[in-house]
Amino acid sequence: QLQLVESGGGLVQPGESLKLSCTASYATLSNYPIAWFRQFPGQEREGIGCISSNDRFTYYVDSVKGRFTISRDNAKNTMYLQMNSLKPEDTAVYYCNAGLNWGQGTQVTVSN
Q: Which terminus of the chain has a smaller tally of CB atoms within 10 A, N or C?
């Protein structure tokens, strides 16, 4: 059973960058399509982007396109979410996903 552990959340100011990591254990992450989701308080979890298992296909929602980048390092069995030009409306709990498996979530707060 794939296990995902996230790290890298925190408090940043508008316009700054943050990189989230999600390390997999007990299975090979490269075998999975990967995705990142976020959840605003009181709302459903929503997908923000994904990459196919062969890394040929990527998708981002319009609200993060051009600012966020999903990637993976197969040697480290880790996936990443690079977030640039962060806005207060990006404040949420962020979750990594691979197949049916989820990370524990990490809080990202963008505020002065």
A: C
